[in-house]
Each structure stands twice: as C-alpha cells, then as structure tokens.
Amino acid sequence: MSELQVVPAEMERLHRFEETAGLLKWITSVDHKQIGIMYVLATLMFFLFGGVEALLMRIQLSWPGMHFLAPETYDQLFTLHGTTMIFLVVMPLLIGIGVYVVPLQIGARDMAFPRLNALSFWLFLFGGLLLYFSVFYGNSPDAGWFAYAPLTEKPYSMMEGMSFWCVGLLTAGIGTVASGINFIVTVATLRARGMSLNRLPLFTWMTLVNSFIILGALPALNASQVMLLLDRELHTRFFNPTGGGSPILWQHFFWNFGHPEVYILIIPAWGMLSEVIPVFSRKPIFGYTFVAASTVAIALLSFWVWGHHMFAVGLGHWPDIFFAATSALIAVPTGIKIFAWIGTMWGGAIRFTTSMMFAVAFLIQFTMGGVTGIMFAVVPIDWQLTDTYFVVAHLHYVLFGGTLFAVFSGLYYWFPKMSGRMLSERIGRWHFWLTVIGFNATFFVQHIVGAMGMTRRVWTYPNLPRWAVLNLISSIGAFVLGFSVLIFLWNLWVSAKRGEPAGPNPWDAWTLEWATTSPPPEYNFREIPPVHGRRPLWDLQHPESEKNPKEHG
Amino acid sequence: MRARDLNKTRFAMLLFLGSESVFFIFLIVAYIYYHGDVRSGPTAHSSLDPVKTGIYTAILLSSSGTIWLAERAFRRGSSAFRWWIAATIACGATFLCGEMKEYAKMLHEDITISRNVFGSTYFTLTGFHAAHVTVGLLLMCVLLGLSIRNRLREDHGEAVESISYYWHFVDLVWAAVFSTIYLWSTR
Amino acid sequence: MHPPSVFDPHSAYAWSIYHLTVVVTILMGVVVLIVTGLVTYVCIRFRERKHPGPRLSYGNRKVEILYTALPLMLLASIFGLMIRNMDASDPIQRTRDNIVVVGHQFWWEIRYPGTGIVTANEVHIPAGKPQMFGMEAADVIHDFWVPQLGRKMDMVPGYHRDVWLAANEPGIYLGRCSEYCGKEHAWMRIRVFAQTPANFAQWEADQEKIPPIPTTGDAADGARYFTTMTCANCHTIRGTSAQGEIGPDLTHLASRTTLAAGRLPNDPADLANWIKDPTKYKPGCFMPDLGLTDEQVRDLVAYLETLR
C-alpha cells in the first residue's frame, strides 16, 4: 500500500535529531512543519508591529487638527504599516501555512528542498528585521509602500530610510522566489502515488498557481528595487526626472509587480476557504474544475491589469480602456469562486465552528471588496476616487476582510494539526464577533469619507461636515479590532497549553494532512494512505465510492 | 510514474532561470525605454564598438558548445570532461576580460553609471550579466576542482546538468543583450 | 463653499462621472445584496441542526456556466456604459491651455498663459466656461483634484498633461493634492473661485496691474526689507527687484483669502505669525524662520497688505 517506507537508518537520524533540544532545534530546523510554525510566529510578531502602527495613525486621525503625531512620524508609520502588512505579514503568513500544510496534503515527508526552505524563512525574517532596523537607525522609510519616484530619489529623500526599504525587501524577496520554486518542485515531484493534478487538494492547487505568480512578479520588484537603490546610492538616472529618467517608468515597473502581488496575497487564502467550506458543509467542493481553472485564469490575467493603478496618470484613452477591460474581466473568475463556495454550502449540513464563521464572513466582506474593485476598473470612477479613503476601504475589505479572515479561518482549522490541541471555540466566538464588528466599523465608513473627498496619506484633515464623526467611528473600530487581535493571541496561548487534545482528525476532514497524528511526527506519515480521489480519507470510509468518477477527478 | 522522473534539481534550476529572465527583461526594457531619450552625453552609438565586442560575444556563445561537450563527456565518464570544463571557463574568463577592457575604456572617457540614462542602463544591464558570468565561472571552477581531486561522482550528474543550464542561460541573456545594445541601438 | 465631495458635481464633467458612479454603485449594491442574501439563506436553511443529512453533489455544469456568464454580461454592460461615459467625463479633444497649474512641494503655482498673471494656491475661473487646465510638476508627483469640477489629474515632473474642468455656477470649490508628495501633503489644498464673467474679467484686470511700491510709513520700510533681505531670493513681486522663483508669487498676495496652501486665513495677524515661524504652522514647508524682529515683521506685513 504505502510507497515510502521509513528506512531504519533514517529513523535513527530522526531520533538523534529529536534529542537536540530547545531553541537550537528550531533555529537549525529544516523540517517544513517547524519552519511553517516559525513563519506563523514571525508574521504574528510583524502583525503586532503593523497593528500598533495602524492604531497610532488612527489616534492621530480620530479628530481633525490632532497633534498626537508629527507629520514625518505619520509618513513613516503609514509606509511601515503598508510594507509590513503586505511583505512581512500576509505574504509570508500564506507562504508559511503553505509550507506547513502542502507537504502533508500531498503525502510528502517534507518540501523538495528542505534547506532552501529554511533559507527562505531566514531571508524573510532578516529582511523584515533589516527594514525595522531603520527605525533604530533613526529614519524609517517614509515614501509609501509603492515608493513612487522621484519622492524616493535622493534630493527628496536624503535619509537612508528608502534604501533600507529596498535592501530589506530585496532580501525577503529573494527568499520568496526561492519559496515559489520550492513549492512548484514539491508539488510536481513529491505527490503521493495516485494524486494526479486534478485530485490535488484545492489549497495545494492554489499555492501551486500562486508560486508561478511569485516567479513572474517578484523578480519585477527585485529589478525595480535594484534600479531605485542604484539611483539612490550610485546616482544612476533611472527614475529621476532631473537626470533624464522617468517617474512613470517606475510606476509601470512597480505595478507590474504590484498587481500580481495582490493576487499573491489572496489566492492561497481562497485555497484555505476551499478546504474549510467543504469540510464544514460536509460536501465536496462545488465545481472543482471551475474553481481550479478560474485560479489559473486569474494568474494569467493578473499580469495584464497593472495600468489600472495608473488611470490618474493620464496614460491616454486607449491604454485606459485596455486596462479597464482586463481589470473588469478578472472579476469573472473571482465571482466563480464566490458562487462555487455558496454552491458547496447549498444542500450541506453546515457546522458553525469559528473557522466556518470566519469563512462565511469572508464571503460577504470579500464580495464588498470585490465590487469596489470593479468600481475602480471603471476609469471615470477611478479618476475621482483613486487615492482617497475609498481605496483604503476597498483594499482593507480585500486584504483584511478577505485574506486575513480566511487566514483566521485556516488557523482555527489547522491549529489542531499544528499543536495537537483545539483552539477554544468559546474564546473563538468572542474573537470572531469582535473582529467582524471592529473591522466593519473601521473600514465601512472609510468608503463614505473617501467619496466625500478625504484623500489618503494625510496626517491631518480639515473639519468639513461629517468628516470628524466618520473618522472617529473608524478610530474606535480600529481599537475594537486591535482588542480582538489580543483575544486571538490569548486563545493561541491558552489553547496551546491547555486546549482539548485534538486527535488526528478532529473535523472529520478528508485530505491527507488529517491521516497522521496531530502534531505529525518529523517524517509526517508512517504509511501514506492510498489516493484514489480528491478526498482520500473519505474514500477510506466509503469504499463503495470507488466507482464514482466525479469523486475521482 | 512520470512525476518521479522529473528531476528535482534540474526542474528547480529551470524555474530559477525563469525568474531570472523576468529580472533581465526588466533591465532590458529599461534600456530600450531610454534609448533615443538621451538628451546629452554619450550614447550607445558614440561609445560602443560592436565589432570588438562581437568577437568576445562569439567566444562566449561558443562556450555553450564546450559545456555541452563537457556534459556529454561526464555522462560517458570520460576524463575529457575536465578539458571541456576548462575550455568553458577559459571562454567565460576571456569574455569577462573583454568586457572589463571595454568598461575601462569607457570609464577613461568619463562614461560612468551616473553620467546619463545611457550610462545607467548600459552599466546596470551588462553589469548584472557580468555578475552572472562570474557566478557561473565560480561554479565551474568548483566542478573542475572536484573533478581533478576525483571527488566528482556519477550521481553529481544533476548538478553538472543544472550548471550547464545556468551557463546556457547566461549565454542566452548575452545574446539578447548584445542584439539590443550593440546591434540594434548602435545603429 | 463646496466641500470636495464626489456627490456634489458642479460641471458637466463631474455630473457625467457622478451619474456613472451612481449607476455602478447601485448595480454593485445589488450584487452584494444577492451574495449576502444567498449566504444568509444557506446559513439558515442548511445548518446542521436543520439539515443534518448533506446532499452529495460535485457541482452542476449548468449552474457553473450560469455564474460565469451572468457576471460577464453584467461587466460587459458596465464596460459599455464606461466607454460611452469616458469622452463626456474627460473629452479627448484638447485646446490651448487657459490655465497652467504647477505642483510644488506643498503649494500650487498658477499661471494664466498669454496674460502674465501668476498667482498661487487659489485658482480663479469664469463660471460656465470649460477651462483647459495644463498640469505640470516642479519637483515630485502631485495631483490636482477638485471633485466638484471634474476628474483628478496627476502632475508628473517631466510631463505635461491637460484636463478639462469647469464650474457651472459661481462659488468657492475646495480641492486638494491627491498624490502623496511628502511631509506636508495634507496641507496642500486648493481653492477654485468660479466667478461671473464680469467679476472674472475684473479680477484678471486687477491681477495684471503692477502694485505701486509704497514710499511712506511702515510699508515703505517693509518694501525695502523685502527686496534687500532673504525674501527676494525665493519670492517674486512684479515691479520690484524681487524675482525669486522658489516660493509663491506674492504680487497680489493681499487679494488671496488664505496663506500657505490653505493653512492659515490671510489676515494681518496670521500673516505676521506665519512670517515669524512658518514651520510652526506647516512643519514640512521650505520657508525658513528668518529670525526677524517684531518690528521688521510689522513692516513686512504692512507692505504685503498693500499688494491688493
């Protein structure tokens, strides 16, 4: 039955390894599970940094004319907040969960290149710390996460903050590319026997697609950052208009990375939903092929929409129309997924665990973020609303109301596997409702205040009718949200120590990660179960399903 | 199963080279974008010599052949491997010397990376390529060293092949760079 | 005064965008309602307690095609609306610029080509007449946005952009820089004064005049200070030796309603405070505290107040 057997010599090595105790074991680890957990812990640390930055900004913005923060501090905070949340929280968090789950889901004993995997993690961590080192160095980057030239060029940004930004993200970015390569090779070569591509669990599918986007998009960022860094340190002329360079070229280059990046930040989250919703609806995913194929469609389209970040630049009539068309088109495969998840729930027997509740909230909030995204694809609307708080609301509905809700859902789902203990459902309810209330209070009003003319990245604003009260609501919401994060951390802490033991398969789920103990042994599986379909553990329980072609893909 | 026939190292190298080509495409696009936009100072036309660099280009491109022969010799277990690898290193090093001579000549004429957009795009693009050549030379020196000490075993085949892929890629990038900078933009 | 709201259009261009925004918002609202309705329905109808036995299903090709095709049709119709709307919102046809606005770090330079008028931060236009605005930038990227009058337009250094803006009726329209441009991006605000054609012509005539240099009293001392001290390095006052080009043109400073791109109201007391310590009010601005005595400041204010 099982293809891979643990050879005695290997077992002995593993035992010896287990004896190396403590911190050293973590630091030297090449085990994908330990590295995955380290990713989660490191991103939680950066999540706290980014969250505190957001709260400081919300205090400053809670009322017009506040003098809580100096303008330069505010500029550094929003730059750090955006950079942190995108590069040091969401992206590595999704990669980290992937690093933990993907080898288990495909019945492998580790990633294809365990040491490269560890290198990716440490590059990410030290890249992030390097970025934060700028705070102690006395000047953090202050020109926004998009780093528009020439504001990032030497004459306008004399301090070293933006150079830290370049070097820190280059370091992390190289690690991300390595992760992408590692995922693709892992899924291509280490799948259990019988797991053909159309039997791949959807989280793995989406991580795979995502890795291809990473390989296409991250080098664009790396190249642009190299050029910006050369501009700053060796006085080259790439993006500096006084030297013959073009600020618009930076925008093209940056968004060539920047828009695929948006999908890098959401596709694995969709994968998590595609695991959670079927399991808690007690039904297989509705329209597997459409879900998988639509992800590939998004990956391909994502490289052709960057211009919609530049409608206000005045690229011209036809370029605007081209990018409007591609951007609108990308909503179709996104919609397919929403409906596929609703279709999965339809006719199911839905269990409202905390994980499932986050998934359900995702469906509505992500749709909100999606439709405002379609509004930005409509060029004239973008001409008005871009660079206002409407964008801030839109992107947080996608990245917080969407991605982070899916990540919470995924963490509640996989935490028992990672720790061997269940997260508390009671604390989980509190966490869920406070997050929903805090999130919507913070960001819903920003749609309105944006359309009323409040622009982004301002440290203060005039006391125009209703602006003050809307901002105050947003700030109060932000603190509720901050409190909900503390409750989540509390839940992680208590449950890891005293949570209910999980057993191998607490959710009665169907993918291979649930076929081993929780937490799994170093070698993951003593025996890999046979894979005859998309839900190998379900097949084991229902041998009669052997003949059902739909189950088997 | 087919999945198991796929060699991990080679596949990873191909993916890595894929991401590298995106990196180089952006540097090449920057070069093309600013070509014809040079308001003052040196241009490709005024400062480059396609013929002389063409000779070095021919030497570099021929090293794709020598490394292919080296790989073949390796698979046969023949000691000709060492000679072909040494030849490849020699070709790469010659190319690098040629490029350094060209750099020296340009710097002498005060054509630097910060002089104008031509200088910036030219030195960045060719400089990153030269860095890749250097890495390739180091990798091949390691192979040669291992081989001379008889430490290179048969199961190192995928390493040899991956390095050879890398070297072909470096040549391919130069072919693109040479065509863009020396053939197209010096006209 | 009209706050910078998308919901308060005052030109054909802004109206056109406003209509499209409303239509698309309603359509998108319907989408959100449908999804929310479906999610709520399945959550109530198919919760385990109510519906313990799940129906095994793997999908339904017809439904799948339906939920691909319907959104596609919706998006195609929005796209069609957009194409029809684009030329009305920002006509492709361009003419000679009526006004050129140049974004500087934290203030706006406003030129009226063909007239010699140069002013700052407050744009005057005749109401009811479409104006061709030229957009430029002196240092970093800025963005000119007065939503009641039309679309926003980035000002990118090294590029010239044109955009149609208009105000149907007289009034004051508030706008602001909409592309992050550095420390005082927040205090980079715009006022557009739309005037009746007669008032606008009067304003133009006033602005073209060169104010006389006062010869007596505090104002005369102030004028001398202005041209002999550091002020003249950065500011221009037509008709004097002050021809600096770094800061705003002050030829008719006293005719403006605000100081420092909307930071302070333009009255003698605030002007004096501003001159004494500009970075106290606008920490990122480039005008330094010159260490002037109270007396010098009083004289300078007296002079600047004559520049009507």
Q: Roughly how much helix do the residues of chain B carry, as a percent range? A: over 70%
Kindly provide the name of the CATH class of chain A. Mainly Alpha
The overall average pLDDT of chain A, rounded, is 92
Gyration radius from CA atoms of chain A, angstroms: 23 Å
* Number of separate helices of chain A: 19
Mean pLDDT metric of chain B: 92
Largest sheet of chain B: none
| Gross geometry of chain A | globular
Portion in strands of chain A: under 5%
Low-confidence residue ranges of chain B = none
**Text of the CATH class of chain B:** Mainly Alpha
What is the terminal-to-terminal distance of chain A? 21 Å
Q: What is the multimeric organization of the chains shown?
A: heterotrimer
CATH topology of chain A: Cytochrome C Oxidase, Chain A
Order of helices and strands of chain B: HHHHHHH
Query: Considering DSSP H and I runs of 4 or more, what fraction of the residues of chain A is helical?
Result: 55-70%
Strand content of chain B: under 5%
Rounded to an integer in angstroms, the radius of gyration calculated over CA atoms of chain B is 18 Å
Structure in words:
The complex is a heterotrimer of chains A (553), B (187) and C (308). By secondary structure, chain A is mainly α. Chain A has helices at residues 8-19, 22-27, 32-61, 71-105, 114-137, 161-189, 202-234, 247-264, 267-281, 288-301, 317-329, 331-345, 354-377, 379-385, 389-419, 425-451, 467-498, 536-541, 549-552. Chain B is elongated and about 55 Å long. Chain B starts with a helix and ends with a helix. Chain C contains eight helices and twelve strands. Chain C has helices at residues 12-45, 61-89, 197-208, 217-228, 231-234, 268-276, 278-281, 294-305; strands at residues 99-104, 107-112, 117-120, 122-126, 131-137, 142-145, 153-155, 161-165, 171-177, 189-195, 258-259, 264-265. Chain C has a five-stranded mixed sheet. A five-stranded mixed sheet of chain C has the order 4-10-9-6-7. Chain C has a two-stranded antiparallel sheet with strand order 11-12. In chain C, α1 (12-45) packs antiparallel against α2. Chains in contact: A-B, A-C.
